[in-house]
Amino acid sequence: MVVTPELSTLADALDWLRSVDDELRAAMRSHGVLYLRGLPVRDVQDFGAVRDQLVPQRTPYREKATPRHSYGDDVFSSTDLPPAQPIRMHNENSYTLDFPGTLVFCCLTAPTEGGATPVADCRAVLRDIPEHLVRRMRSSGWALRRNYSDLVSLDWRTAFATDRSAQVEAYCAENLIAARWSGDDLSTSQIRAGVITHPHTGDEVWFNHMAFWNSWSLDEEIRESLVDEFGADGLPFETSFGDGEPVTKEDLAAIDAAYAGATMRRSWQPGDVMMVDNILAAHGRERFRGDRRIVVAMGDPVSVRDCLPTVPAEARFV
Questions:
Q1: Which of 74, 271, 282, 290 has the fewest CB atoms inside 10 Å of its own CB, making it the most exposed?
Q2: What per-residue string of b and e applies to 97-111 under the rule 16 or more CB within 10 Å gives b?
Q3: CA Rg, the chain, in Å?
């Protein structure tokens, strides 16, 4: 963690950030994450100014999957899921062809209990996952299947930010996503690499949402309820290996253990800023009590094609 010098104004903070920009970015690239404490960030506007200094090139939020509040100026709530629901480790937008290379989080209101944003070193995750699972991921990648609904998860209009089905179809065709319509209901599927290489550091990493969105990651009662309601093929999210082989409970436990062994956490304080290299580090959210206001912005866009993916992206239902 970097504790800043005493900075009484936002202008002073921006001047200091400019003066140490190279050192901060080098530290983030080395560790995957960098905490900054002591910046005079008090509201969304202050955070936007800090974001613009840290990551001048923004990345849009595509293929939305969880509820977020937009504060404007490409600043979002980190998530609007219920406080009692933890969020598993994941790399932001790992399923898109272009994704943010850097995430910037900021605490505006700290929760009274819990609510950390833990991070995991994806280099260590890759090293600790059993070799047979890594081999399968290298050879076949992973598949994401989504069923869009306004009852569970997000509807397609929210996910794709349009109410025109033709625009959704055009986006899917351009971004290698298979799409099927049943009336007004949409299902999609995409194959993506789950092991990639950082384009600047050369580090190979575990980079995907496979455990995050697998049905075995759900609470057992919730999983059974969703299967009863929608059927095994109708779940809002499901993942497998790219060749269609399912992820077993044992596979999921092994992946979870690797994430747990590589995870670090720090409690939020108001004004804290955290920079995350989205390729080198996964992030999540712990349960919390009390008010919690964490905002996030995304920048430094990266194309998966520049990350030596072990399998090509593909639009295919498995």
A1: 290
A2: bbbbbbbbbbbbebb
A3: 19
Question: Which residue matches tokens 């996910």?
Answer: 159
Tell whether the model's pLDDT for residue 206 goes beyond 90: yes
Residue 252 DSSP SS3 = helix
The whole-number pLDDT of residue 151 equals 79
What does DSSP say about strands 142-147 and 237-241: parallel, antiparallel, or unpaired? Answer: antiparallel
99 vs 192: CA distance, rounded Å: 13
pLDDT of residue 152: 79
The three-class DSSP label of residue 206 is strand
Please tell me the distance from the alpha carbon of residue 186 to that of residue 242, in angstroms, as a whole number: 21
Q: What is the pLDDT of residues 115-128, one digit of tens each?
A: 999 999 999 999 99
Residue 150 has pLDDT above 90, yes or no: no
DSSP string, 69-125: -EEETTEEES--S-TT--EEEE-TTTTSSEEEEEEEEEEEE--SEE----EEEHHHH
pTM of the model: 0.96
Q: H helices of the chain, where?
A: 10-19, 21-31, 44-54, 122-128, 131-140, 156-160, 165-174, 220-230, 249-261
pLDDT of residue 159: 97
Q: If you average pLDDT over residues 292-303, what whole number do you get?
A: 98
Non-local (6+) Cβ contacts of 233 within 8 A are: none
The two structure tokens encoding residue 34: 């960098």
**Token digits for 243?**
């060749």
Contact 311, 318 (CB under 8 A): no
